[in-house]
Design brief:
This protein is an alpha/beta fold and 308 residues long. It folds into 2 domains: 135 residues, Nucleoside Triphosphate Pyrophosphohydrolase (Alpha-Beta Complex), CATH 3.90.79; 163 residues, Rossmann fold (3-Layer(aba) Sandwich). The protein has 10 helices and 13 strands. The strands form 2 sheets. Strands 1, 2, 3, 4, 5, 6 and 7 form a 7-stranded mixed β-sheet that branches. Helix 6 links the parallel strand 9 and strand 10. Helix 3 packs antiparallel against helix 4 and helix 5 packs across helix 6. The chain is globular, with a radius of gyration of 20 Å.
Length: 308
């Protein structure tokens, strides 16, 4: 039996020092990171954000994914915990409403090297070492670029209308609604989409829920990618140097051109994973992490399959 859980390593830079947020648990009297078990029907990113809010009162946007930890709990079961890093802004910390409770006794910001001696468990030290190394490489703070394939659409052979207006199936509309909470864990600020109906219908629920504008790019349609792949490439490249996190929604036939473009900015370790994103299933997405330096590179990627 495997117990699945997720958590967040919140970090900040204060007076030139890298600090992480630790929690002291009431029952176990230990120092660790906020985490908790997956609720039924929940994705791991949703769990991480929910547990962070419940345990600390802090609402976070997930940063890059960290290592997955596996260890045995006293019952003998294996526990698999997925962690994300998250840079916490001062405003979010000030707005947090933490109250000591039966689960969490107190919170503390601790300088990372001191935290190595403070945390109770070896696996948490492994996470800290990872955080320190990523910070040294200037790859801890990243910006998200989410590549989303539209949800399940009406089959071509069952649609007599204009191809650009082929809509989502009822199942696809359910997928689009399900995407709202999953995408909210990453909180993309700029929403760029093919203007065709099935892409619009996929992103609209999230756009409406977050009151964000949809930006149409005709270069992202499957027709444009077939006739003018260079234009599709340019539309994707425009997102590389944007200052805000972004979501890009397109079609399966356009994915090979899009992923090849993205791979030109990926570090060698993840190039193949970026290219493999051309196999995304309807309603599935990848989160690419762009470094924040003068020559930003994609330094990490995770694939997310929302449950129906």
């Amino acid at each position: 039996m495997t117990i699945y859980a997720a958590g967040v390593v919140c970090w900040r830079e204060r007076k030139g020092q890298l600090e992480v947020l630790l929690v002291h648990r009431t029952q176990y009297k230990d120092w660790s990171f906020p985490k908790g078990k997956v609720d039924p029907g929940e994705t791991l990113p949703e769990t991480a954000v929910r547990e962070m809010l419940e345990e600390t009162g802090v609402k976070v946007r997930l940063g890059r994914k960290l290592s997955t930890l596996n260890y045995q709990v006293p019952s003998g079961a294996n526990k698999e915990v997925h962690y994300w890093a998250s840079k916490l802004k001062e405003k979010a910390w000030k707005e947090a409403k933490f109250q000591p409770n039966k689960e969490i006794q107190k919170l503390a910001w601790v300088e990372v090297n001191e935290a190595l001696d403070t945390v109770t468990y070896v696996h948490d030290r492994q996470l800290l070492v990872e955080i320190i190394e990523l910070h040294k490489k200037q790859e801890l703070e990243t910006r998200a670029l989410i590549l989303l394939r539209h949800a399940k659409a009406t089959p071509r052979d069952q649609w007599d209308g204009e191809e650009a207006k082929r809509p989502l199936l009822p199942e696809g509309k359910k997928q689009a609604k399900r995407l709202v909470k999953v995408l909210a864990a990453y909180s993309p600020k700029r929403l760029v989409t093919s203007p065709w109906t099935r892409c619009h219908q996929t992103v609209e629920p999230y756009a409406n829920a977050t009151k964000k504008r949809l930006i149409n790019r005709s270069q992202l349609t499957e027709l444009a990618s077939a006739l003018s792949p260079r234009k599709t490439t340019h539309a994707v490249e425009d997102l590389f140097d944007a200052s805000r996190s972004a979501l890009l929604c397109s079609h399966r036939p356009a994915l090979p051109t899009i992923t090849k473009t993205l791979a030109t900015r990926a570090v060698a370790d993840i190039k193949n994973e970026v290219l493999a994103a051309n196999t995304l299933q309807p309603g599935e997405f990848v989160v690419l992490r762009l470094s924040m330096g003068k020559k930003p590179k994609f330094v990490a990627i995770e694939r997310v399959t929302p449950t129906s």
